[in-house]
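Researcher: I need the complex structure. Ligand is adenosine monophosphate. Inputs:
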Amino acid sequence: MRIGIIGAGQLGQMLGFAARKLDVECRFLDPSISPPAGVCGDVIQRPFDDPKALAKLAASCDVISYEFENVPVGALQEIAGTVPIYPPLDALRQAQDRLDEKRLFEQLGIPLPGYRAIDTRDDMVAAAEALGLPMVVKTRRLGYDGKGQFLVKTSADVDKAWKTLGAQALIAEQWVPFDYEVSSIGVRNVDGDVHIYALSHNVHKDGILHSSRSPVDAPELAEKAAGYVRRLLDHLDYVGVLALELFVRGDDLLANEFAPRVHNSGHWTIEGAATSQFENHLRAIMNLPLGSTASRGHAGMINLIGEIPAAARGLEAGHLHDYGKAPRAGRKLGHITVVAATADDRDALLDKIDTNVT
Ligand code: AMP
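Model: Output:
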């Protein structure tokens, strides 16, 4: 069995490590030189939408998957008849467009912040009136880690937002004064079996994930979030891992977005769950029985962004994952995971690492 993965970044690398455990070979497609996943499989070094490279990948693999959601769907459609591609392209297409994504949440009865589609400056003015301020304006496509976003605080910001982002299709969303953010990660295999991981509490800094802690001591919220993930997985006839990010406000959950792939907020599952999200993604797309998603304790994860400080290499407690990427401001270079018997012990370990390392 050989699995073709489009993208050879750190998510590809962690999929590649999980594949070794299952005695499965991975082959990657990525235009970069020496990408992280190069240590665990052959890399076809071509653009993601190169038809010949995609055809080569399809012809040499039993199933194709991807590690990031901006893969051009049209290019994948060219090979879709020749090899199974999971997660399904319809899920990928809807996740690529924030407007389609929000309409899908509405259709499935998943609560979300108020929003408006914006194509003109007048639409933006009307959105500010309808939603109230502050509101956040986002590009419909190709946004990630808070990029392509503009916070409109006063009506004077409307012009600035329009000048900054107005060349593209946009949406505006109500700004949610959330208590905290969570993600629920689920996995579904070809046979339709579904498993869901414990909820993660996520902290973002400058739009980039900083840390995750799981489980969250809020069983009712966890059950509600798991129900939403299950709805998405079943509706999309989904195969693989899916992550749903939500805002928590009191007893309410509001969906922000979903990612049709393994997710940074699930990195704790490598040490902190019976089966990691990476292994379960592979199991799902190969239609193997899914592994248990039960937590092994109280897990936490801190991202290492921009550099891997020397202190990260001599930790008393904690697992360092170094993706082998060149340092650069704002770049995810690695992460540290801790697992403890209690939430208090986990928090103490994580806080110490946060103070001494990041
Ligand atoms: P996104 O790229 O949409 O996931 O946004 C990145 C981060 O910006 C989120 O994880 C939140 O911390 C924040 N954010 C995005 N949209 C909103 C919103 N409507 N209200 C409050 N915070 C938001």
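Model: Summary of the prediction. The chain has a mean pLDDT of 96.
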